[in-house]
Design a protein that fits this description.
The complex is a heterodimer of chains A (135) and B (394).
Chain A (H helix, E strand, L loop, with lengths): L6 H5 L2 H5 L2 E5 L5 E2 L15 E5 L3 E10 L12 E8 L4 E6 L12 E11 L6 E9 L2
Antiparallel strand pairs in A: 1-2, 1-3, 4-5, 4-7, 5-6, 7-8
Chain B lengths: L10 E8 L10 H16 L8 E5 L3 H5 L4 H8 L7 E4 L5 H14 L6 E7 L6 H8 L15 H16 L3 H15 L13 H6 L2 E3 L2 E2 L9 E9 L11 E10 L14 H14 L8 E3 L5 H10 L8 H7 L15 H5 L3 H17 L12 E8 L4 E8 L3
Parallel strand pairs in B: 2-3, 2-4, 9-10
Antiparallel strand pairs in B: 1-7, 1-8, 4-7, 5-6, 8-11, 10-11
Classes of the chains: A mainly beta (135), B alpha/beta (394).
Bound molecules: zinc ion.
Chain lengths: 135, 394
């Protein structure tokens, strides 16, 4: 029973996942990923605007997934990392284009655009950002 | 932020009951809930007619068995219609949330006898499907989407904790070994089997650095507790256990958005509120059931609940002080690791272990002189934390 969602479920996330767009609070200057309408610090005085992140960052923590959820079997073993991006916020995605064993905390990485997985029945191919070692 | 007031009316636990935890091929979700419910009502010495409301924790009956609306299922099959029934859901802390809602209902003065329970039937689907179902406990859109798994999220916490505080792989393994030592003595535990540090370290990797024996299992089970106003508790039992505090806090749904991924701020805040409500400090707690869904989670819990300084949770497990016979025995039931983790039932089963210990009914696991105990139940990677303090003293 893999959950397959209608196209709209993925389509509305295009900006977030394809262009790495999040939010910045014009009041306190804090960055957020994913985008938020309310700044938790400033609440009603906050002024949220969309911002495209640079895509540069450092590995903050990482793991190598050996037992995958449905849909990810062909990618095992793959690295999932918390990446601290230069704007100061953090995100989770995969680190690719290197051996999983070579990933380290503090490693410089940059964004890349990749396939995430495909839906089994509809054949819909899902994309999004991943990170690769900074060259 | 306005601080919470105290409960308007004191509440006591007058009865407890649970199924054995494990893989119950012959029992459905509703059958397990009924078994635990009957045991709790019998233990309390009341009749089903006395119960005025039922609250049941259930993370995902829908994904695990196809059955949502488990509140109605509970009232119906427990023979309790037409009393109101509420389902609470906060992922793996759904059970403790049921406890909390029951306490608040009695404290409000509206109800006197409330049955609070939890149930999860996890083995009716296959492993990868269960992994997918559990991934709904984290941020589905920004964590699970990219292939993060639930063990993977805790592995990220472990890796950073080891990096930042020099927590060792062996210290993580010691948590599993201790909890299996305790579960070995618990007749309702899923794994009544001792393990060694070597076995943990040679078990298959799930998400580095976490291995299979760092992870709590997939479990079927149900647990129920009967709550009543403290003023009448002695009419029903010689050993009432009083609720000294019920506290809950929230944090970001996703791990990566946290101030510090090695600290569960929701736990820190729920514990702060609980200690304040009870007028107690960590040194006053004689034993605790903490949320060890993965070994690293117990290390973090030591720190976040105030039993160890930040970063020194690894040293605390190594000191042996959290074993039975130590200064602060933790997870005498075997914890989620060895007793099992039927997600919706876990929070109630934690309450039951503390009640048994405070009553002096814990058999070979009995902590001598246990007077005040704590439970700590976490939803997801820490977006919800629920802390209760129970005591023999009113
Ligand atoms: Zn702001």
């Amino acid at each position: 029973m893999v959950k397959e969602f209608a196209v709209s479920f993925h389509w509305r996330k295009f900006k977030e996942r394809y262009m790495f767009i999040g939010s910045r609070c014009g009041h306190c200057g804090e960055h957020f990923y994913p985008k938020r309408e309310i700044c938790p610090k400033c609440r009603r005085t906050g002024k949220m605007e969309h911002v495209q992140f640079s895509g540069l960052g450092k590995v903050y923590s990482y793991t190598i997934i050996r037992v995958p959820p449905e849909g990810f079997k062909t990618y095992v073993p793959y690295v999932i990392a918390v990446v601290e991006i230069d704007e100061g916020t953090k995100v989770i995605s995969q680190v690719v284009d290197c051996r999983p064993e070579d990933v380290r905390i503090g490693m410089d990485v940059q964004l890349c655009f990749r396939k995430i997985r495909s839906e089994r029945d509809s054949g819909l191919i899902l994309y999004g950002f991943k990170f690769k070692p900074l060259k | 932020m306005t601080e919470e007031a105290k409960l308007n009316r004191d509440v006591a636990v007058i009865g407890v009951g649970q199924t054995k935890f494990g893989e119950h091929w012959s029992q459905s979700m509703r059958e397990m809930a009924v078994e635990a419910g009957i045991k709790a009502v019998e233990d309390a010495g009341i009749s089903g007619h006395d119960i005025q409301m039922v609250v049941g924790g259930n993370m995902s009956g829908g994904l695990f068995t196809g059955q949502e609306h488990s509140s109605a299922m509970l009232a119906d099959y427990l023979g309790l219609n037409p009393i109101p029934a509420i389902r609470t859901e906060a992922a793996c802390s759904s059970g403790a949330l049921a406890m909390r809602v029951g306490i608040l209902a009695i404290a409000s003065g509206m109800y006197d006898f409330v049955a609070v329970g939890g149930v999860e039937k996890m083995t009716d689907i296959y492993g990868p499907q269960a992994t997918t179902a559990l991934s709904g406990a984290m941020d589905y859109e920004t964590e699970a989407y990219f292939g993060a798994t639930f063990p993977g999220i805790y592995a990220l916490i472990a890796q950073r904790h080891m990096y930042q505080y020099k927590t060792t792989r062996e210290q993580l393994a010691m948590v599993a070994v201790k909890n299996h030592d305790n579960g070995f003595l618990n007749p309702v535990a899923q794994y009544q089997k001792r393990i060694t540090v070597g076995e943990v370290l040679s078990s298959p990797l799930v998400a580095d650095p976490l291995r299979l024996l760092d992870c709590s299992p997939i479990t079927d089970g149900a647990a129920t507790v009967i709550l009543a106003p403290a003023d009448v508790a002695r009419k029903y039992t010689d050993a009432p256990v009083y609720v000294k505090a019920t506290a809950q806090a929230s944090d970001t749904l996703s791990l990566f958005s946290r101030r510090d991924i090695t600290t569960l701020d929701a736990t820190v805040e729920a514990a702060r509120r609980a200690y304040k409500q009870a007028g107690l400090a960590p040194k006053d707690i004689n034993l605790a059931e903490v949320h060890d869904c993965f070994t690293i989670a117990e290390i973090c819990a030591y720190e976040d609940l105030g039993f160890a300084k930040k970063g020194e949770g690894g040293k605390l497990i190594q000191s042996g002080q959290t074993m039975l016979g130590g200064k602060i025995p933790i997870n005498t039931s075997g914890g989620l690791k060895s007793k099992g983790h039927p997600v919706g039932a876990t929070g109630i089963a934690q309450i039951i272990e503390i009640v048994k210990q405070l009553r002096g009914d814990a058999g070979k696991r009995q902590v001598n002189g246990a007077n005040t105990g704590m439970t700590h139940n976490v939803g997801g990677s820490g977006a919800t934390a629920v802390v209760h303090i129970l005591s023999r003293d009113r």
